[in-house]
């Protein structure tokens, strides 16, 4: 039985991710945490605001998890994204994979975050001192 | 027919949804919906991309829209 | 000032790794955890025993961290290895890197564990029911 | 001159170090040390590889050994 945890939450507790991914069948666990960086292209960020089309986002996250489990024979997957206002250094997304060997968990973890960024309906607004920007909205 | 709006799409329209039952001219396909949006709100044409979801799945232009469908405008996503 | 944490310990507390790597300058943190798997090539493992040439191991780990910080412009690095007897599912090694962007932290994290396995003087003995094996000792 | 032994090297020799002050025939280079070990303990020749560290740095065959050096035999490493 493969374990997948898919969640959209108000605040992420990173420290529990490891226990969620631990398994006697795994030799490697890879976790990626995306956090709010204080500068974007030289401009100081005040905060980020995330919103989501929750029903569809959870469905897309579930599909991504399933694709990864199948492709890399993973024992477990976590995909957890935060929404709402996030300050500098706050975690906004955590993805992780555990597998018998390390190559699989690294590749899967990279796939999880790359694919999440491509197709999960979550939107990020950067709040600067004098303006706000919907990230990636314009070319 | 209601169309849900998110992110910059919500800002462009100024509402979190559009109700086509009220306005009367309900688009019959994803392509027709895009045309209508671009005509009514020229700001949509300036976005990097614009996707449409029907019943919470990404839908191509030829997908037919029915009155009970849950439709959503998906501007460029930027999670993570 | 780049932060690097290099340690050889009796037991690893994985949950603190994230806070050690967190930084306002980072947008991505990648952590790899190596754990004891219950089967190796179809044989059930009872436990693993790790020993080290501590002085040299710490020196080699430090060199690996410095190489990674320089190559990927990391904000921080953790390399922590456990020694002694480890049971199924115990963490035996944790490596992590934080960087402004995710590609760098993933590549650096993979480099840290791959290079550690190549040259840090730590030795692993597999304890099976009826035999013990020094891993990689013989061709 | 003491030579530290780890992992399978310790098992082969049956001790955690070799003291060449006692045995008298101290090798003068990394290559000479390897030759001596392979001659005295044929099991060393069966290993996947065998490295030598001098003052806690990997040392090539031509490195000279001095009596104050900290020397260690490094059988194939297997951390992680």
Question: Any overview of this molecule?
Answer:
The complex is a heterotetramer, with 2 copies of chain A (139 residues) and 2 copies of chain B (80 residues). With 139 residues, chain A is α+β, with helices and mostly antiparallel strands. Chain A contains 3 helices and 9 strands, in the order E-H-E-E-E-H-E-E-E-H-E-E. In chain A, the strands form 2 sheets. In chain A, strands 3, 4, 6, 8 and 9 form a 5-stranded antiparallel β-sheet that branches. Chain A has a 4-stranded mixed β-sheet with strand order 1-5-7-2. In chain A, strand 3 and strand 4 (43-52) form a beta hairpin. The longest helix of chain A is centred in the middle third of the chain and has 19 residues, at 54-72. Chain A is elongated, with a radius of gyration of 16 Å. The mean pLDDT of chain A is 96. Chain B has 3 helices and 5 strands; from the N terminus they run E-H-E-H-H-E-E-E. Chain B is 28% helix and 22% strand. By secondary structure, chain B is an alpha+beta fold. A 5-stranded mixed β-sheet of chain B has the order 2-1-5-3-4. Chain B has helices at residues 7-13, 20-23, 30-40, and strands at residues 2-5, 17-19, 51-54, 57-59, 71-74. The longest helix of chain B has 11 residues, at 30-40. Classes of the chains: A alpha+beta (139), B alpha+beta (80). At the A-C interface, strand 2 and helix 3 of A face strand 2 and helix 3 of C. Strand 2 (28-35) of chain A pairs antiparallel with strand 2 (28-35) of chain C, so a sheet runs across the interface.
Largest sheet report of chain A: 5 strands, antiparallel
Number of strands of chain A: 9
In one word, what is the shape of chain B? globular
Mean pLDDT of chain A: 96
The percentage helix of chain A is 25-40%
Largest sheet of chain B: 5 strands, mixed
Biggest sheet, spatial arrangement of strands of chain B: 2-1-5-3-4
Q: What order do the helices and strands of chain A follow? A: EHEEEHEEEHEE
Structural class of chain A: alpha+beta
Largest interface: A-C, 32 and 32 residues
Distance between the termini of chain B: 31 Å
